[in-house]
Design brief:
- 0% of the residues lie in helices and 47% in strands.
- It is mostly beta strands.
- Strands 3, 4, 5, 6, 9, 10, 11 and 12 form an eight-stranded antiparallel beta sheet that branches. Strands 15, 18, 19, 20, 21, 23 and 24 form a seven-stranded antiparallel beta sheet that branches.
- The relative contact order is 0.12.
């Protein structure tokens, strides 16, 4: 059973592996190099441009290009934020980390020339979709195909479905891959089916598809009701995060306390190191507040400039897990 996310206009591309190897396949409008999205614009790829204000079209050869901007769902279709860098007479590029994107957005985009003219892809270009900009339909937009999970034997998420030995095919689908019904095929083992994925830290919903039939994970008690009055299973992917307090080597005891352990003043006793103190804790993706307690005195992290007021008015250090 699909989540509502499956209705977002997204086509899912093959896996993005966060390594140093560049993706071999280049798609019109962008390419992927490790954990970097490289938007690429070549003016020779376009014949027509549409004025954003009047809607009339112009021949692309008649445009005197002053700047090119990437505009899409991920930046609220802004025409003056993501400026591209001119590479040569015909080409412009913009590099963005995948961390500039989140799972909450769809990925349609277009190029805007001189903050006014939309470059129109031709029908023969790949990855073309439709999108909505501020209530208006946009036709001929590029579709950035990506997801934040991929198969990896040493990954951080192991999925196991016991039994169903007579099934021909079992798929695991979830919010980590836009509920794709074909992408993550599980491997048949002696006692069932299994697959290990590498997934960005966060809380995700998922289901199994057994020969076309959707079902929750019967061995996972963590679940949430979906829009079809059935249940999606839940998985919380954590990342081991090291907290370090440099200095204070004369302290007797240092405690790590934060929103992740309900500000407990005793549980997370830090280990003394040559440089100071250290404690490693698995954390879910997102924002976490914390402080150190040095011999009974609460202090902010002196080596972390990111701070934020809590609801009670106190200032805490902030750790972001991505």
């Amino acid at each position: 059973m699909k989540s509502l996310l499956s209705h977002i206009i997204i086509l899912v591309f093959a896996m993005i592996s966060l390594n140093s190897n560049a993706q071999k396949d280049n798609f019109k409008g962008y390419r992927i190099e490790g954990d970097t999205i490289v938007f690429s614009f070549n003016k020779n790829d376009y014949k027509k441009a549409t004025n954003d204000y009047r809607g009339n079209k112009r021949d692309f050869d008649d445009l005197d290009i002053e700047n090119v901007v990437v505009s899409g769902e991920f930046n609220n279709w802004s025409k003056d934020k993501w400026y591209m860098t001119k590479v040569d007479e015909n080409n412009y590029e913009l590099r963005k980390s995948i961390h500039d994107f989140t799972d909450e957005f769809s990925w349609e985009f277009k190029f805007v020339v001189n903050n006014e003219y939309w470059a129109e892809p031709t029908k023969r270009d790949g990855n073309i979709a439709k999108a909505t900009k501020h209530g208006k339909r946009l036709y001929g937009v590029y579709n950035l195909k990506m997801y934040l999970a991929h198969p990896n034997e040493k990954g951080n998420a192991h999925f196991k479905l016991n039994g169903y030995k007579n099934a021909k095919k079992v798929i695991v689908a979830g919010s980590f891959n836009k509920w794709d019904e074909h992408l993550f095929k599980m491997d048949k083992v002696d006692d069932g089916w299994e697959l290990t994925l590498k997934i960005k830290p966060g809380v995700y919903q998922y289901r199994f598809i057994v020969d076309g039939q959707w079902m929750e994970d019967p061995d996972n008690p963590n679940k949430t009701k979906n829009e079809y009055h059935e249940y999606n299973s839940l998985i919380d992917i954590k990342a081991y995060t090291a907290f370090k307090l440099r200095g204070y080597t004369n302290a007797t005891k240092v405690i790590l306390a934060g929103s992740f352990n309900n500000w407990n003043e005793h549980d997370f006793e830090m280990r003394k190191m040559d440089y100071g103190w250290k404690y490693v804790v698995p954390l879910s993706g997102g924002k976490h507040h914390y402080k150190f307690i040095v011999d009974g005195k609460w202090i902010l992290d002196p080596n972390n400039a990111v701070k934020e007021y809590a609801n009670d008015g106190h200032i805490n250090s902030v750790c972001m897990v991505k």
